[in-house]
Structures are given as structure tokens and as C-alpha cells.
Amino acid sequence: MEINSSRFLSSAPSTTLCPDSKMHEYAFIGRSNVGKSSLINMLTRHNGLAMTSSTPGKTMLINHFIINEESQPWMIVDLPGYGYAKRSKADRDRIRAIIEDYIVNRPQLTCLFVLIDSRHKPQAIDLEFMEWLATEGVPFAMVFTKLDKLTPTAGKKSIELYLEKMKESWEELPPVFRTSSNDKRGRNELLEYIGELNTLPVDRSEEA
Ligand code: GTP
Ligand code: MG
């Protein structure tokens, strides 16, 4: 899978206001500042497509980007980050509700990529979120980010520790990707995975 074009389509404050399309959709989620928007720019090789910032909590809406519009189009979705402590509880609850509604009520969401900062130990907020995805039957994959900030040995060890922790409660682990938006690590692997999923029926409820 190669990305030949990418364009910002729309920002929506709720699922009902998202584009009325029947294309495969891939959404990126994770804690605020984990690198969602940067990863989208890295994958599309389109700097500034998704807004990035060192100030957490930048992405507040459900942002749709249309990919390969002229050939076989599909969508990338940038979601607001969860768990940003400096937001008020009311704001966090509101964002959480937007995210959960989108995830549950968007049948063309083919895979949700859950981003985890490679430098951090497993955090309850991410573990609980992935458990919730499993109970809802949402297809997801894990994406470790910012690996350029660690030595190869430290990166490997940190991810191993994370997956060991998950194995305590998960029978089977989701697909795992190791990335850096700075050095483009993991780009081919992610795009290849998306390419494979693009061959499935668009509505995940129609799978056998
Ligand atoms: P919110 O929209 O606020 O939830 O954040 P986000 O998850 O979209 O994060 P964003 O892509 O805006 O990146 C946050 C900060 O991390 C920025 O300062 C980025 O430059 C930095 N960053 C993102 N990815 C990487 C990476 O792979 N390596 C390094 N070194 N820095 C990164
Ligand atoms: Mg963002």
C-alpha cells in the first residue's frame, strides 16, 4: 500500500456529523501527546496535514482525512487524546463520550490504532481502554511511538515489559507495531497492514 494523496476532509464534534461515506476508516487514538497527529503526517508524508503540538490536548474533534482519493480511497481519522490531566473533568468526560460513541457507532472503522509511548510503563488508563475495546469487539492494534527517543536496547526492553504485562490478562495479543514519526520507522509495516485490511468488507458487522 502506498499513499499517493491525502487531504483534510472535515472536523466533526460527533459521530452523526462525520462524513457519510462507505470507505474503510482507520483511526488513531491514545493519550494526549502520544504522537497521533505526528504519526498521521508520517504515514501520509504530508507535513502539517494533521495538526501537531507540544501542548497536549490539541486535537479536540474527530478529524477525517481522505487518502488516495483518485484511485481506491480510504480514510484516516485523528481522534482527540484521552486522559489529559489538565483538562477539567467535565471536558475529559465529554471527549471520552465523543470517542466512545465514534468507536462503537462507526461500522466502517476497520481498525483502531491505539498509540502507546514506548518510554512509559503500562498505564491503567491504556490497559483499561484496550479491555473496553475487547468487550465491545472493536478491532484494534497497538502502536508503540517515539522509539527514536530510546536506544534500541531500551526500546526493545520497554515494549517487551509492556507485552508481558498484557499477557497477564490477555489470551492473545493484538497486532503490535513499533514506530517513530521522526525516523519513519514502522511506516511500511503499518501501510502494509492497512492494505491487507482494505481488502475486507467495509462494514465490520458484515464479516463472517
Ligand atoms: P494531542 O492531539 O494533543 O492529543 O496530541 P497527539 O497525540 O496528536 O501528539 P502530536 O502528534 O501532536 O505530538 C506531540 C509531541 O510529541 C510533539 O511535540 C511532537 O513533535 C512529538 N512527537 C510525536 N511523535 C514523535 C516521535 O516519533 N519522535 C519524537 N522524538 N517526537 C515525537
Ligand atoms: Mg493530535
Task: Describe the structure using short key phrases.
single chain; binds magnesium ion; alpha/beta; seven-stranded mixed sheet; 5 helices; binds guanosine-5'-triphosphate; 208 residues; globular
Kindly name the structural category: alpha/beta
User: How many angstroms separate the termini?
Assistant: 25 Å
**Could you state the order of secondary-structure elements as H and E?**
EEHEEHEHEHEH
Mean pLDDT: 94
Please outline the major beta sheet: 7 strands, mixed
| Extended strand count | 7
Give the low-pLDDT segments: none
What is the topology, as strand order, of the major beta sheet? 1-3-4-2-5-6-7
Bound molecules: guanosine-5'-triphosphate, magnesium ion
Rg over CA atoms, rounded to whole Å, is: 16 Å
Strand content: 15-25%
Helix-residue proportion: 25-40%
Shape: globular
Count of helix runs: 5
